[in-house]
Amino acid sequence: MAKTQAYAALLRGINIGGHRRVPMADLGTLLTGLGHGDVRTYLQSGNAVFTSASGDADDTLARGIEKAVEAHFGFTVDCLVRAAPYLASVVADCPFPAAELEGRQLHVTYFSEHIDPQRFDSVDAPAFLPEEFRLGERALYLYAPHGLGRSKLAETLSRPRMTKGVIATTRNWNTVVKLAEMTGGSA
What we know:
This protein is an alpha+beta fold. The chain folds into two domains: 5-86, 2-Layer Sandwich (Alpha-Beta Plaits); 87-182, Alpha-Beta Plaits (2-Layer Sandwich), CATH 3.30.70. The chain contains six helices and eight strands, in the order βαββαβαβββααβα. A four-stranded antiparallel β-sheet has the order 2-3-1-4, sandwiched between helices. Helix 3 (84-92) crosses helix 6 (173-182). The longest helix has 16 residues, at 58-73.
């Protein structure tokens, strides 16, 4: 029997502007119905934590959640699943002084796979200062001092050529830390 592991599911693009509504209570029920334990949701933007003893890889768990969401709600949603140790490492490896910043100033974009740094070579980073970004392990850290909604760098980084062929979903630093805490990772 596989050891139980804590995970976070990050659903992309739900409950934004009234589109693709997934009530968090329904998401919790759906995850429980898939056989996952200790299911809890966080906020209304598609964050859930759960435990699983299936031994399945993150990608297998994510595809199962995507299929269940489509069957239950009638639309497709991209999902990333990350284990507690990975979530803790994202917090620990932050290249920016997170403790000195507001949560709205720092964001992490999680990627479905490793991203070749050359993908971002065309970004004229100095032109966006004081905004900055750094790549991590299947993650991109973005410092946007005036928030994500006003960030020109975020707009550039989210263009299709930058994220082509990968699932990408962004969370603010408060959510990044909270998901690490909820899965038992350090924060």
